[in-house]
Amino acid sequence: MDKRVHSIKWLYLTVFLLPVLATAQEKETKKETEKNIDEVVLVGYSKVSKKDVTNAVGSVKADDVKDMPVNSAAEAIQGRVAGVQITASEGSPGAEVEIKVRGGTSITQSNAPLYIVDGIQMDNALSIISPKEIESIEVLKDAASTSIYGSRGANGVVLITTKGGRKKAAAQINYSGYTGVRKITNTIPVLDPYDFVMYQYELYNKNGIADDITAFTTRYGNFNELAEKYGNIKKRDWQDELFGKEAFNFTHNLSLTGGSDKSAFSLTLNHVEEDGIMLSSGFRRSMANFKYDYDISKKLKVGFNVRYSRQLISGAGTSASGSQGTNRLRNAVRYQPFEGGSNVPIDDFDPNYATLTNLVNPLILNDNEVKDAKTNDLLLNAYLNYNITKNLTFRSVVGYVQKDNFINQFWGTVTSDARSNNNQPIVQLTRNQTRRITNTNTLNYTQKFGNHKLDLLLGEETVQTDGETSSTYTKWLPVSITPNEAFANIQSATPPSGMIQDAPKTGALPPDRLLSFFGRANYIFNNKYIITASIRADASNVFGVGNRWGTFPAVSVAWKLKEENFLKSKEWLEELKLRFGYGLAGNNRIPAYLYDTFFTTSTDYGYTFGSGVTPGATTGNTLANKNVTWEATVSKNLGLDFGFFNGRLYGSIDGYITDTKDLLVLAKIPQTSGYEYQYQNSGKTQNKGLEFTLGGLIVNKENFTWKTDFNISTNKNIIKSLGANVSGGNDYYLVASGWVNSLYDFIAKVGNPVGTYYGYVTEGRYEISDFDFNPTTQAYTLKNGVPSSSAVANGSKPIQPGDLKLRDLNGDGQITAADQTELGNAQPKFFGGFSQTFRYRNWDMSLFFNFSIGNKVYNANKIEFSTQYLYRDNNMSADVADRWRWFNDQGVKVTDPTALAALNANTTMWTPPQGNYILHSYAIEDGSFLRLNNVTIGYTLPKNSLEMLGIKNFRLYATINNLFTITGYKGYDPEASTRRNPLTPGVDYAAYPRSRFILTGIDLTF
After folding, report:
1. 495, 520, 541 — which closes off a domain?
2. Mean pLDDT of 561-583
3. pLDDT tens-digit series, residues 353-390
4. Rounded Cα gap, residues 744 and 901, in angstroms
């Protein structure tokens, strides 16, 4: 293990563990005031005292995140729950957030957990909820707790409760707002102007072709003037110009709460205006949430919640999820780093240069690619709570969720799309709407008799989801049209003579229907022994007749050792509880009706008739499968909860094994079937892990408190089986990440983790000693026994000294696809987070860290920016400055082997390969990191000085988010993961850079 990992470990010990151990020696007398209030957690349709929980549940309360000035709840809870990984795919405003609970179980389908907001299912809920409105977040991690949710519970369940008003409470107004600025934290180093031109000199002159030599002189000048001309020329730092602006943020939160004897209400308003560090990018969100509860009588209570959110993400971004052909980051890295060198000024579009280099000035391109992604979210839910008897309660919840997505994209005349369509602008308008109706009805019976406590729950639930989608792709718009004009006037497009405009595409999302019945029984004896059993039966129209029903049982037990006589009198021990759970959860996350063959209409399969395109009918490329059924996850969990010294030291340890079988896999099948894919139940995965949580109130004086919380998790994921139908009898198959077409750079293999990189081992470069030299022809020929990487890495061009050398793993004397091997994986060995919270009189300070140890990152940018491939006049990674040289300082090509070896005695990098992009171990880096995610310092004005103004609380604070990251990773960010396939995680390709956020704010309560 390298020194960075050791230093990170010691930092954890000194910052966290040593102060926690000091807690045991701290003596305090105020025991009663230090006792925690009996917390409750939400577990499957009802609340349970935290002391009586038998399952693996992670909880985040409002107090934990109330001082976190971030715009999404996902950011606020990152690193706070053991076993839960939360990562932003990149640093763009509104970037997609991936949440995995205990590693994820699927290999081709989504591993996202199920989100329940105030009893209603919502997709990606943490991204659209403001942290200021969170009352609590519970993460159900094991199947013993998630099986009560049956369908989609296999990947965990996130239960979110938002704040409401309080009965018999005076009206209270709270305003919190902050403003700040973001700046890019680091850039990718590239060649400076002189090194760039010297590299081009080598490319143009190496082969001695007269036309190439003349072309270089025409473009860059004579060699004897290069040092003076480009050694002092002003450098254009395109990354700084594109990403280096100060991006301002303004966030406002306003809440009004109150209540009467019978009612309570809460109104929350949130408005965010956030600029992105990339020009023309930004994020805007306006949200309103209103909750109302009313007691009609002592037995009957009703309430409703209305949430509406409008969100706009602006900017075409860097095309992180696209392929190499759509990478916009390339232009900021590889465009020539200075002005001049062409007959066309650098700030004007040069079509010839674009053709020769496949590059466009990144600032001009940014102005010509416009993307506005608008999302409207509506949630309506209402409940009725009726106490039939003192011990029997009926509850009914009805919810409606609607999401509308509108994406407007514009490609101006300089873009490759427009240049391939008569140099005229193009517009694409995409519209999607999804609707979900939910109804849940439960009967809850509770009874205490003697030393016995019984809690019974019966329930029924229906969920219906449907929607529509449409897309219009309009070419040949007027050259002078602006993006906003184009979005509103697509009818102004005029096809050239003989050309036909593409017809709009429309479609309906397959309706998804779910009917469920469930029950749970919880029994507590003598406040010592607890057993909970549940069962749920789900029927889903995703599957065909005979396969629609899935049954998901679970059982969990707990033993409160603290309540035993031999420990009950121990005042130093507050809690000691042993837990065990076993359960089965299901997953049905595939489109509906794939068990039968349906025809759909599309212009993609149409034919020309008259002046338009008549849509044709097709079955698509996915073969029906009548036998496909539920994916099933079996989870076993053993846990221990403990607390010492009246709550001064507390924590938990959990160990689990999660086995998933009958994986819902989108399998590639022989095309002799007439189809390309088929959904199948095939394969098994397993996750095994440990989770450790520890917290302590280290100092608890009247004027000073110091509290710390720490969690660390480890998860080992392996593929147990891929199924004969998927793998063709093999124990592996190759997977393409997609950043380069037809590059299969991942392997799914039995016994390996999901997300294993697959490629060649970098051996360095070929040296003079690897060749025989013919002084007559001045030709270098590889010696016998030295394997050639020509076909793999150099476009089948003859290998020369300094070329990239790959390892011959099978010893057959040549480099072929057979020499590829496993290069590591994206799974960390450990991950977690820790916080430090200090309060001194009216001052407060908090620090929050998150970390990851042992994961590998696939730096695809590193491959692209160090590979020459097809184009000259492209800038390269700064590593290329240390490449093998063919020309001496006088610009003369060195041919003598001895002199050539001496010239390169102090260089280490190989000549940028001329072949297609391949994965080799040079791009696989250690992604371990320790990040100070948030540091906040606040001051609360004394309350007695505010009372005369009617102010209850007034706090001022300053915060820095992403203050620093300790890592050896050389890319933008070690957490970047830009692919959307569970089989291809950890790929950093064309990711939007992460920024540092410095802000100040106020929190004011009347």
Report:
1. 541
2. 92
3. 888 888 999 999 999 999 999 999 999 999 999 999 99
4. 36
